Amino acid sequence: MKKRNLELYLHIPFCVRKCNYCDFFSASGTEEEQAAYVSAMIQEIQSYQELSGEYEVQTIFLGGGTPSLLTPEQIEQIFNAIYHTFSVNENAEITMEMNPGTVDIEKLHAMKAAGVNRLSIGLQSAQNEELKMLGRIHTFEEFLETWKLIEQVGFKNRNIDLMSALPGQTIESYEDTLSKVLALEPEHISAYSLIIEEGTPFASRTLNLPDEDAEYNMYEATAQILREYGFEQYEISNYAKKGRECRHNVGYWIRQDYLGFGLGASSLYGKERFANTQDMKKYLENSRTPEKIREKEPPLTREDEMAEFMFLGLRMTRGISKAEFEWQFGSEIDAIYGDVLRKYKSM
Question: Measured between alpha carbons, how far is 19 from 21 in angstroms, rounded to an integer?
């Protein structure tokens, strides 16, 4: 019997310092707290042993927080647990997020030895004044030092995160950032516009943000300049060299089954959608019994699934497949969304 595809997401919530714009679930932690968390995550991973015969893992993504704060030993322990619990495709895409200044040559070698074959590096800007304003812990020069180490270890699939529409940012400073990043020849660039989220330090400040026209010009400049360097825009905020699209994220957008491990991590498993608790104490005490840490949502109805298929699929420039819709839901897409589609096609 052919195994079904599965994605794994592991949430590492620890940061050196929370950035001024960040609303992700993250916090600083002591070495002891980090070690206890890794042990609990390993127990949670091991509790899914029964899935190994039914699923084959196609992608693994360690996000955060700052996963690169893990020690080499913790990286090895986590991946050993994954490989002993799940059937992992030999060509699986395995991504680890990292921040400049949080890795050395030993840690990068540990990542590679564990099977990590894709890195996602949080730069955000090549302008030091913008990095300081964002609350980043590094300068552009420190990013370049980290990049040299990455090249030295031999990683060949690398994403760089960038942000636009920052307070005080101009189209000129943003294009300078693009130019400096492109000179490094990464395989993938994620370029996001800043969104001011409630509860962040930025939300309580009066910020000198670019106006809508300037923000739009930055977005257009991103697509145009990256296209000239051989990048294809395959999703709203993501650009890749040919064959270097992030397979893990594409899996989210086509509603691939995925399991999330760690605090607050979300999962979509069959028709079930659930998220882990954000209570550290509860997680540490109960991680070996997933039912005790899950916060379940109501089961997805057929209408829910069809709506998700549409709005997630339309994030991608390739759009959605009528044949795939019919195969999944047993109805032609025009019978369900024909009026809406005709309306927007005519605009």
Answer: 6
CA distances from 94 to 46, 111, 181 (A): 19, 10, 23
**Could you tell me whether strands 118-124 and 158-164 are parallel, antiparallel, or unpaired per DSSP bridges?**
parallel
Measured between alpha carbons, how far is residue 41 from residues 7, 83, 282, 313 in Å?
16, 14, 13, 31
**Among 147-161, 180-194, 301-315, which stretch is predicted with the lowest mean pLDDT?**
301-315
Partnered with residue 4 across adjacent β-strands are 55
Four-point Cα dihedral 176, 178, 180, 181, nearest 10 = 160
Q: Please report, for residues 23, 56, 62, 73, 291, the alpha-carbon distance to residue 261 in angstroms, rounded to integers and kept in the order given.
A: 19, 17, 10, 19, 13
The average pLDDT across 193-198 equals 87
Q: Supply the pLDDT for residue 275.
A: 95
Q: Retrieve residue 221's tokens.
A: 């400049």
CA dist 239 to 123, 149, 160, 177, 243, Å? 16, 24, 10, 16, 11
The pTM for the full model equals: 0.92
The conformational region for residue 335 under phi > 0 = left, psi -120 to 50 = alpha, else beta, is alpha
Cα-based torsion angle of the residue sequence 26, 32, 36, 41 in order, rounded to the nearest 10 degrees: 40
Question: With 70 as the cut, is the pLDDT of residue 103 above it?
Answer: yes
CA distance linking residue 65 with residue 337, whole number of Å: 39
What is the predicted pLDDT for the residue at 330?
87
Task: Name residue 60's beta-bridge partners.
Answer: 8, 94
> Position 128: which residue type?
N
Question: For 223-264, what is each residue's pLDDT tens digit?
Answer: 999 999 999 999 999 999 999 999 999 999 888 999 999 999
Q: In angstroms, how far is CA 284 from the centroid of its own chain? A: 24
Q: Which residues contact 184 (CB under 8 A, 6 or more apart)?
A: 147, 160
Q: Kindly give, in sequence order, each residue whose CB lies less than 8 Å from that of residue 15, ignoring residues fewer than 6 positions away.
A: 26, 27, 28, 64, 65, 66, 69
Query: Which residues, at least 6 apart from 251, have a Cβ–Cβ distance to it below 8 Å?
Result: 5, 7, 58, 59, 258
How many CA atoms does the CB half-sphere of 198 hold within 13 Å?
Answer: 0
pLDDT for 309-333, tens place per residue? 887 888 888 888 888 888 888 888 8
Predicted local distance difference test score (pLDDT) of residue 284: 96
